[in-house]
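User: Sequence recovery, please. Input:
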């Protein structure tokens, strides 16, 4: 089955705050470049104006973006010729986002670009640490840039959106004083992943699975986002953030929500987001005792990954030698609603683990009777549906089959669907999908204000209890392992356990 071409974006000028940062290089520019190469953005009517603290000229900005794009696997059509066409659309202006004068000079710069033919639709992309979002929003408001009489003005805000419930509420308030909710795009790039969107198609595009997708048939759900990567060049950000805020508060809660939500009445922004918020509202808020029972945090020490020695987190450049930042989290969430009462959702994420893999495993209940029990070694494994987000994107289903031979022996086998086999080709990269949606004005795959607040309502109580507890015994797992041993205390029982990474 061929992958159809992507639609076209509206003409627009993208203003990136934080353009000298890591995300712009690694994700935003490669994605925009790829969209330009495949004809999704209009050549003459598309420009990027990067802004940041770092003093550099437009030429220097272009050179640094070229270097990043030429080595990025997301800039799939990189060639000298393609880049030269694209880089003409890149511009840069340095400035201090806390200085009101900066927004006036930005306005002037935007006016000059428009005079040279740039579009009057403006997309402001805030790719800075969360604490810098409020002054940017205020600056856009005061300078009048947020209200655009000649076209649209939208704002895209990177995660984490605030750092707890209070800051997220304050940021939502600030943003909504300046922009209408329909023009606010809170980005979580997991929602741009094909396989994440496919959770909804799998559940609601088939009549086979939905009738059994509930507490009557499902025993527990396991959600894993494991990375072999460490903190790379992002220690300053990561030291302040930690795995709970970085991964669980957004990406993993999104995966949980899509797995657990009720069917929306239609696939449109409001219907989908309404159902997601309902799930978040039903997630049980833990008491302090429950936080200690149902969460485990970890930090990696030195180890070996893929045969190479890896240093411990406390030895990474920019990390405090006694840092108590967690690089691993495992949590047992409970959803207090009709569909999921009594079904635990075990969620874990960590850096520098033995394998990179993101997947959801739905474990079904055992058969009510073991009728093949007379054969030796007989133990029918419960069915498992695995939604593989990455790598080897696809879905697998395990069930029992009769092992050939004279005995009535049941053994687990797997049925496998692989995206690569079914669709071939290359699916769009998450940031491309989302940037395109934002440029076309479709917020369905973005997080609504109340959704972000409800995410923090779940996460902040955990952070608060952790803060009050004595410093944990870190490091407590080796780089290259499956995570801390202690995570097993959440889930270990006769019939439940964490899957080994790569299993
Ligand atoms: C980002 C986190 O949002 O997601 C990173 O800040 C993490 O720490 C990354 O590495 C993982 O994304 P992906 O698409 O590689 O799974």
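Assistant: Recovered sequence (503 residues):
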């Amino acid at each position: 089955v061929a992958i159809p071409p992507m639609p076209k974006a509206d003409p627009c000028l993208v203003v990136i705050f934080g353009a000298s940062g890591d995300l712009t290089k690694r994700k935003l520019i490669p994605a925009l470049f790829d969209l330009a190469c495949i004809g999704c953005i209009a050549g003459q009517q598309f420009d990027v104006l990067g802004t940041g603290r770092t003093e550099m000229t437009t030429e220097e900005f272009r050179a640094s973006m070229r270097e990043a794009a030429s080595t990025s696997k997301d800039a799939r059509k990189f060639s000298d010729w393609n880049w030269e066409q694209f880089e003409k659309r890149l511009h840069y202006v340095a400035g201090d986002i806390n200085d009101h004068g900066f927004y006036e000079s930005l306005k002037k710069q935007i006016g000059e670009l428009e005079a040279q033919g740039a579009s009057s639709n403006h997309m402001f992309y805030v790719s800075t640490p969360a604490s810098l979002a409020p002054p940017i929003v205020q600056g856009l408001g005061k300078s009048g840039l947020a209200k655009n009489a000649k076209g649209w003005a939208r704002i895209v805000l990177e995660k984490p959106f605030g750092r707890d419930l209070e800051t997220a509420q304050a940021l939502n308030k600030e943003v909504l004083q300046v922009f209408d909710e329909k023009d606010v795009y809170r980005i979580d790039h997991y929602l741009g992943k094909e396989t994440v969107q496919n959770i909804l198609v799998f559940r609601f595009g088939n009549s086979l699975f939905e009738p059994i997708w509930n507490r009557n048939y499902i025993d527990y759900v396991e959600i894993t986002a494991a990375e072999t990567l460490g903190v790379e060049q992002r220690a300053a950000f990561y030291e302040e953030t930690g795995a709970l805020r970085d991964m669980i508060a957004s990406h993993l809660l999104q995966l949980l929500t899509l797995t657990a939500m009720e069917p929306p009445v239609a696939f449109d922004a409001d219907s989908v987001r309404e159902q997601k918020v309902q799930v978040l509202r039903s997630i049980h808020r833990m008491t302090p005792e429950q936080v200690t029972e149902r969460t485990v945090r970890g930090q990696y020490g030195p180890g070996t990954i893929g045969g190479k020695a890896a240093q411990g987190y406390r030895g990474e450049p920019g990390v405090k030698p006694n840092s108590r930042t967690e690089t691993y989290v495992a949590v047992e969430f409970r959803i207090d609603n009709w569909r999921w009462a009594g079904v635990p959702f075990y969620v874990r994420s960590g850096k520098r683990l033995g394998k990179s893999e993101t997947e959801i495993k739905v474990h079904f209940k055992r058969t009510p009777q073991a009728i093949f029990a007379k054969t030796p070694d007989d133990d029918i494994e419960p069915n498992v549906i695995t939604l593989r987000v990455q790598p080897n994107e696809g879905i697998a289903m395990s069930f029992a089959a009769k092992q050939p031979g004279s005995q009535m022996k049941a053994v687990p086998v797997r049925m496998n669907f692989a995206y690569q086999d079914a669709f071939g080709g290359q699916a769009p990269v998450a940031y491309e999908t989302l940037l395109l949606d934002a440029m076309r004005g479709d917020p369905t795959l973005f997080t609504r204000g109340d959704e972000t607040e409800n995410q923090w309502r779940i996460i902040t109580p955990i952070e608060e209890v952790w803060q009050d507890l004595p410093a944990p015994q870190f490091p407590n797992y080796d780089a290259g392992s499956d995570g801390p041993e202690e995570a097993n205390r959440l889930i270990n029982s006769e019939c439940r356990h964490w899957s080994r990474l790569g299993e």
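The mean pLDDT is 94.
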